[in-house]
Each structure stands twice: as C-alpha cells, then as structure tokens.
Design brief:
- It is built from four helices and six strands.
- The protein is α+β, with helices and mostly antiparallel strands.
- It has one domain: ph1033 like fold (Roll), CATH 3.10.590.
- It has a six-stranded mixed sheet.
- It is globular, with a radius of gyration of 16 Å.
Length: 160
C-alpha cells in the first residue's frame, strides 16, 4: 500500500462535501498538473490511502482520510467546453488528464499546516518543502504512521 496527500480547496469541495456524497465517494477531477496527474495515473492503486487536505483557506490542514476505490480513468471535464477544466488539446483517443475515485474512510480533527511544520519528524515531508504547490504528493509510511499516532491519536473509525 502507498500513501498520499490530496489537496482540495474547501470552497470547491470539502471533506464535508465528500461525507454528503453518494456512498461517500467522488472522482478526484480537475487536476491540471502533470506530476500530480502522473501520481494518479501511474502511482495510485486500489486500496491506497490518502490524507484529505484542505488548502487555500484560513487554516489549511489535514481534514480526513480517503481510500482509492477506482483506478485512474480519463477526467471527463477535459472534454466539456463548459467546464473550467476544459482542455481543447485533449481528445477521447488521447486524453491528457486522469482522475481516480476516492471514498471517505474517516473525518479527523483538523491537523493544521502549522502543527505539521512544528514536527521535526516531518521535516522531509513533501508537503512542507519550500515552494511545493503540488495538489497530490506521496507520503512515506513513516510520515503516515507518525501523523496517525502522534497528531491524530488514531482517528475513531480508522482501522489500518
């Protein structure tokens, strides 16, 4: 199993929106960064887990845990001229953008970015790297365990 961190702006789609979604599942669409796309297309596998991270908000931070429940497939928004994610270069025969589907495992207390930065054990975490703007990053198993054990105190309802 691999671990990830997936950013979403809560004004666009929050952990609460995911909790209200049918079967608590959604497509992670609209990613328009090649490296983040490659993580979804080439790196993510069924059963992988990710921290759901609220970004570009007053208090950014980890708000929950999700599981990858459907492997990468073409992001339909790239073909929709009415979508803000439309890409005129993309074709159905050669899609440029992909998404996976995620399912809510559990909401957690908000683990704020400032709290993550204060942990020397997380000093190498990609999220905390200077200039990092990626919407999806990998998380090491050690970082995952540390965040769960020491910052979240094993969230209620989480059994990994």
């Amino acid at each position: 199993m691999r671990y990830w961190l997936m950013k979403s702006e809560p004004d666009e789609f929050s952990i609460d929106d995911l909790a209200r979604a049918p079967q608590h599942t959604t497509a992670w669409f609209g990613v328009r960064n090649y490296q983040a796309r490659n993580f979804m297309r080439d790196g993510m596998r069924l059963g992988d887990q990710a921290f759901f991270y609220h970004s570009s908000c007053t208090v950014p931070g980890i708000a929950g845990i999700v599981e990858i429940v459907k492997s990468a497939y073409p992001d339909a928004t790239q073909f929709d001229p009415d979508s803000k994610y439309f890409d005129p270069e993309a074709t159905h025969n050669q899609p440029r953008w992909f998404n996976v589907e995620v399912k809510l495992v559990t909401k957690t207390r908000l683990v704020a970015l400032a709290e993550l930065r204060a942990q020397r054990q997380l000093s190498g975490m990609r999220l905390l790297a200077r200039g990092n703007r990626l919407s999806i990053t990998s998380v090491t198993a050690a970082e995952w365990r540390f965040i769960l054990r020491y910052l979240m105190k094993k969230p209620k309802g989480y059994f990994n």
